[in-house]
Design brief:
heterodimer, A: 321 residues, alpha/beta, 2 domains, 12 strands, B: 279 residues, six-stranded mixed sheet, four-stranded antiparallel sheet, 10 helices, 10 strands
């Protein structure tokens, strides 16, 4: 073991392009995940889960590199890969997929404990109890199998299992979208507490902006496989600079808020030329049809939009109303 | 009848000794949206299916020991005593059910246009009259008429959902009963489906009975809400009142669990609503 890397970035993607067969679904994405929590926001088909798979080492980039600390993931030796697989733990949407249906909660968590460390039986039992407690589960649930638990309880067991190997980073792919709202709120509390108590980084992949705001200091918005806006989560949500971020924010129903409006263009496919978002964009101009926007610095974030300044203006205006 | 399209009194659904849904009162009038909110196992879907006479012993599924009591009337028809033919007629035309994943409800081997034409023909609407009704319904849900040439797998989830609503409209539905109609959709697409339902309610007087776990979404469309938990209605009333000043502890917990976006914290929501009232 080399110990903690210097610098805070645990995991990073550098100009990563990912493809299934001949079809590229993620284009030249760069991002780093550090201790503050990073959000990856996008809708179905945006490439967010594909990118997560690559960051977990499950999919090899067609071009670009995934870095674990300062090392290229593709160049890691056996020991390096084992260390990576311990340090970066996935938590998926449905806890039951991560759990063996024949194993009790205690056995599932115990198995993870022994995979990476040699550990005595008594110590193992004590650690399982600690981990159940860490994720707020009643020790009485230790003997239950997945089908005897609720969705929220299963998700907690999946998180306890991920924590068992003392990871440095959790990759959370829609961890709460299959859960009831009150259960979701409690799982978010748990993740927030874990992030604060341990120096545990996380990459949170979701389409739910409210969840990102709670858990991530930085966020990246993915549209059609490209990062269209990156920056401090709060800034992105309060005053988006990309029209897609703005559309996402304004589509979120708010308790007692204005009803959402229909544009009729929401389901237009990404454009093949120029800016991929232009067919859905209310601000699209001639330039957007002719020239794909480059990533540039605007108002403290990176944004790929010719009309970012106008979007900022709109977003600020809408908020004052 | 006093204009109620759905009228439910003292509905109790039991499986064996267990009450899985108990609803003392539920009315939905023309041009009104009533929502039932609650989490898994609350009885909200059972209530919705009961309204259409879809709850009871079923030889095909093997469901037994289901006991349903109370009064249910849909468009003036007593659902509890109506024969199978009469129930089918109501479900086929006047009261339409819209489910979570519409693609599963659309026959994958037929173009959407064929599906629409067959549905209309089954109700005796054919030829030019059928075509114009279909075109009008597709327009009402903000879909491009071109969509009629596509197969179900060639359209997105939101388009399929709006098409399912269009079929209901073409058949002359006065009521749409929607069970989590947008939970499987992206947030931007979800907004569009809700906007379409709102328009139809406002412009055509469509009655909507909506079942959802999403309080924020419900608050943007519902006129009245019922909050259910473990089979019982814990709170009901005008939507603005229930969400702004929840009386029941569980409703308060649900309201507090809605993730808020930074510029709209829960504390400000009440103020916004009050400011609107003053205007």
């Amino acid at each position: 073991m080399t110990g903690r890397e210097t610098g805070s970035a645990v995991l990073g993607a550098h100009r990563v392009t990912l493809a299934y067969g001949a079809t590229a679904v993620v284009h030249e994405v760069s991002l780093t995940v550090d201790a503050g929590g990073v959000g990856l926001i996008g809708e179905s088909g945006s490439g967010k889960t594909t990118l997560a798979r690559a960051l977990l080492g499950l999919l090899r980039p067609r071009s670009g590199t995934i870095r674990y600390g300062s090392r290229d993931l593709a160049a890691l030796d056996r020991t390096g890969r084992a260390e990576f697989r311990r340090a970066v733990q996935p938590v998926f949407q449905d806890g039951s997929e991560a759990l063996d249906p024949r194993m009790t909660a205690a056995a599932s968590i115990g198995e993870a404990l022994t995979t990476h460390h040699r550990i005595g039986r008594d110590r193992r039992r004590a650690r399982v109890a600690e981990l159940l407690d860490d994720v707020g589960l009643d020790p009485a649930l230790a003997d239950r199998r997945p089908h005897q638990m609720s969705g929220g309880q299963r998700q907690r067991v999946a998180i306890a299992r991920a924590l068992a190997v003392e990871p440095r980073l959790l990759v959370l792919d829609e961890p709460t979208s299959a859960l009831d709202v009150t259960v979701q709120a409690r799982i978010l509390d748990l993740l927030e507490r874990l992030a604060a108590e341990r120096s545990l980084g996380h990459l949170l992949i979701t389409h739910n902006l409210g969840v990102v705001d709670r858990l991530c200091r930085t966020s990246h918005v993915l549209f059609a496989g490209r990062v269209v806006e990156s920056g401090p989560t709060r800034d992105l949500l309060v005053r988006p600079a990309h029209p897609y971020t703005l559309a996402l924010r304004d589509a979120v129903p708010r308790l007692g808020g204005e009803p959402p409006r229909a544009s009729g263009r929401t389901e237009a496919a990404p454009a093949e030329t120029g800016c991929p978002f232009r067919l859905r964009c209310p601000l699209a101009a001639d330039r957007c049809r002719e020239e794909a926007p480059e990533d540039r610095e605007v108002a403290g974030r990176r944004v790929a939009c010719h009309r970012a300044e106008d979007v900022l203006e709109r977003a600020g205006h809408a908020q004052r109303q | 009848m006093d204009g109620e399209l759905i009228r439910v009194r003292d509905l109790v659904v039991r499986i064996g000794d267990r009450v899985i849904a108990s609803v003392p009162e539920l009315d939905v009038g023309a041009g009104e949206c009533v929502a039932i909110v609650g989490e898994s196992g609350s009885g909200k879907t059972t209530t919705l299916l009961s309204v259409l006479g879809l709850v009871g012993d079923d030889r095909e599924t093997g469901a037994r020991d289901v006991d349903i009591s109370g009064e249910i009337a849909v468009c003036g028809v007593d659902v509890m005593t109506a024969g199978p033919g009469e129930l089918r007629r109501i479900r086929g035309s006047r009261a339409a059910l819209v489910m979570q994943s519409p693609q599963a409800a659309l026959n994958p081997t037929m173009r959407l246009g064929t599906l629409m034409r067959r549905a209309l023909a089954r109700h005796g609407v054919k030829g030019v009259a059928g075509r114009s009704r279909a075109a009008e319904a597709v327009k009402a849900v903000l879909l491009d008429p071109e969509i009629m040439r596509r197969y179900p797998h060639q359209v997105s989830g939101g388009q399929a959902q709006r098409f399912a609503i269009a079929i209901a409209l073409a058949l002359g539905a006065e009521i749409v009963l929607a069970d989590e109609p947008t939970s499987a959709l992206d947030v931007t697409v979800q907004a569009e489906v809700v906007a379409v339902l709102r328009r139809l309610r406002d412009e055509r007087g469509l009655a909507v009975l909506l079942v959802s776990h999403d309080l924020a979404l419900v608050s943007t469309i519902a006129d009245r809400v019922l909050v259910m938990r473990d089979g019982a209605v814990v709170e009901s009333g005008p939507a603005a009142e229930v969400f702004d000043r929840p009386r029941d502890a569980y409703t308060r917990e649900l309201v507090a669990a809605v993730p808020a976006l930074p510029e709209f914290h829960a504390s400000e929501v009440g103020e916004t609503a009050r400011a609107k009232e003053e205007l």
